[in-house]
Amino acid sequence: MDDEIYSVALTTVDNPYDPFTQFDSWFNYDNQKGYHSCAYLDRISNISDEMSDEEREKAVENAIDEIIKYDFMNIYKKVRISKSKLEEFEEKQASQLQKPIVGLQKLTNSNENSDDFSESAANLQNSETKIEEADEEKEKSADEN
Is residue 54 part of a domain? Predict the structure, then answer.
């Protein structure tokens, strides 16, 4: 086996989504089918806060192996991704998440003239009030004559 370092995950043979790169879709599918693989894996793995990251990863992989060993329906499988590919994907996701924020900042900056809009709305309301007052004055004058 090569020297590449991998992360592993538990999935089912019928789930079309990748638990590493399409987690939300994978998780929704898994729960809709009633597998609840994350909860199952959590119950089987013996993880504690005192464990190092390496110890946790090993405990998760051992739990996945145990689940598959006793899987009499043959629905579970272990998938893996190289850590370098996973990091590359996570970096790409992070940069895509920043783009809307930058766009929102540009939109916010371009809307600095929103005070002008508020001022225009206030002027329009004042004009409407003055028109109403003028109409009332005309009615009073007409009534007096």
Answer: yes
